[in-house]
Design brief:
Chain lengths: 370, 128
Amino acid sequence: MSDEAPLKKTPLHAEHVQLGARMVPFAGYDMPVQYEGVKQEHLAARGAAALFDVSHMGELELDGAEAGRVIDELITNDLSKLAEGRALYTCALNESGTILDDLIVYRRQTDKWLVVCNASNREKIAAHIATAARDRCAFVDASDSTALIALQGPKAMAIAARLGDGGRALGELRSFALCDAMLGGVRCLVARTGYTGEDGVEIFCAAGDVVTLWRALFEVGSELGLKPAGLAARDTLRLEARLSLYGNDIDETTNPLEAGLAWTVKLDKPSFLGKQALLAIKAAGLSRKLVGFEMTGRGIARHGYPLLDASGATIGTCTSGSPGPTVNKNIGLGYVKLGHDAVGSKLLVDCRGKSIEAVVVPTPFYRRPS
Amino acid sequence: MSEIKTDRRYTSDHEWALTDGGLVRIGITAYAVEQLGDITLVNLDAAVGAELTAGAAFGTVESVKTLADLFSPISGTVVEVNAALADQPELVNDDCYGGAWMIAIAPTNPSEVEALLDAEAYGTLLSK
């Protein structure tokens, strides 16, 4: 429990404390894990709207004619067709084809790019990109001066619209599109993205402005059911939507093909870091796959629990697991050996010595009503 | 400050022990419930007839995010298990000092209960 460096605080730290949040250390920050309760916050995001402080995430800015190519060489997805004002989700690999981080890359203007990385990987990814950018384009790690909040849920856009013209215009923003906007008097960059499986936006602004924006959103949003939501609800929401969590489901021991992220990998790109290794992995054939399962017996799978076949032999490991408050089942993700990955495959979860039955199911566990 | 009842004794692991006739009922405290959040699963591993020594694990409670072991505050024989909690774990959130007792023990040595923390001492522990 003795972290050497003192915990960092986001610019919203005092708001969280005042709202009665329980604060926990996460990726070097003192972050709100929950306010009212994970279930209420989860259900608010599914039924109305929730506001998350994700200012701990890393914001890396690249500027210059070469910037797009610098990023493109480091990622599995293809930036060559990404238009101005659009974003995409991607993996960044190391030379052995395993995952350094998962990222969202935003093209703000023709030569102006923003890369958002996980807080726990910020230093690693900042150094990685800075090295590639040297002598080719400008690179700035803007994480400390940038705040990021996520407004998510079926009422998210209605709440944004209550902040005036700038907010109303966001209704036109397509999924994975971004634009500049004035919201509650604050200059923002807004993207129609999120990590909950719901509609909504992620809003970047200067660290010094975010308290104003946070309060303005609650002022107009509370009567529509907007609640603050912490890291715990963020985790159960993303798990139901089967969005990967770095450090749990993906890391430097996993590759994007086995993690179900092949859709982010464009092997027809001329080159990218890790491509040769990934081609070799593909040629050799995968040995395991990340699958979703639900518990059919009474138990909750947790990160690290072994997955067994009917004979009790280990066939994999659970990477994420918890009750799913919307699907109302105990759900999980885990790597299993090929042969056990088909939907309907029965497996056992070793819940601290007790074997509890589970079955592989299609994912996402939850899909929002269209 | 979490609710503490003066009619029973406590452990530093946030279990309570209430003498009820010749039995001692065991449950978890309001503080424990607040720390756990919404209880989603109660596993009572100890069956009726099981012999427990003080400090022995007799089950687990799980919430959305975490899992906590249940430890018997005293030694004795399990004489009742609250079967309702298997299907209604949320009872623990609603009534942790009443209907959501977990097991009842016939104590080997009834004075073990008196040696546990009283309400005041438990309150002091929580205020630290």
